[in-house]
Amino acid sequence: MTPQPLLILRRCYLFLTSFLMRTHGSKRQQNAVKNVPPSQMQKVYEALDTLGNTKRRVDRGILSVVEDPWAKEGYIGGLAARHAVSLPELDSDDAKDIKKLKWNMRKAKKTNQERHSLLCDIELKLPVYDIMKSDSIKDPDTNPNDILANRLVDRLVESF
């Protein structure tokens, strides 16, 4: 199942529900893209079609470099640690210590949020790579969109 060519901005194939264009919440930027005449957007649609039809493969060597530390729950090379940073506790009633504690709490919470975001990102991507890896053995030039669509349909059929 290959994706249909893009003719308008609203029709596309996405695996993850995320924005195609990061606008940082700017309504003016979103409206500018929506108000462009379709004839001017044609080259953008053609580029997106080309990207969508490009065959991809998983580099098994690089994937194993990521999977091995992930399986051992190690914090190596930018992979997020699975344990949370412990929040500091208040030891004294001194105003300076309380102020320092608040800053340390903020830092710890921020670190935990960033780790959680990285963990979620990795947990979403690794299963996709596993699917691509197992199916690319059969056909090395398989389009990942085709693989994912077929797997999702198979899982839906199995669940009923």
TrEMBL record:
Report which gene this protein is encoded by.
RPOT3SYL_2
Alphabetically, the GO molecular function entries are: DNA-directed RNA polymerase activity
The residue ranges of the DNA-directed RNA polymerase N-terminal domain are 13-53
SUPFAM superfamilies recorded for this chain?
DNA/RNA polymerases
* Amino-acid biosynthesis keyword on record: no
Q: Which PANTHER family match?
A: DNA-DIRECTED RNA POLYMERASE 3, CHLOROPLASTIC (PTHR10102:SF1), DNA-DIRECTED RNA POLYMERASE, MITOCHONDRIAL (PTHR10102)
| Claim: Protein transport is one of the keywords in the record | no
Species, as recorded: Castilleja foliolosa
Under the heading InterPro entries, the entry gives: DNA-dir_Rpol_phage-type (IPR002092), DNA/RNA_pol_sf (IPR043502), RPOL_N (IPR029262)
Highest classification ranks of the organism = Eukaryota, Viridiplantae, Streptophyta, Embryophyta, Tracheophyta
Q: So which residues are the signal peptide here? A: 1-25
Protein name, entry field:
DNA-directed RNA polymerase 3A, chloroplastic
UniProt KW keywords: DNA-directed RNA polymerase, Nucleotidyltransferase, Signal, Transcription, Transferase
Entry function: DNA-dependent RNA polymerase catalyzes the transcription of DNA into RNA using the four ribonucleoside triphosphates as substrates.
The enzyme's E.C. designation: 2.7.7.6
The GO cellular component terms are: DNA-directed RNA polymerase complex
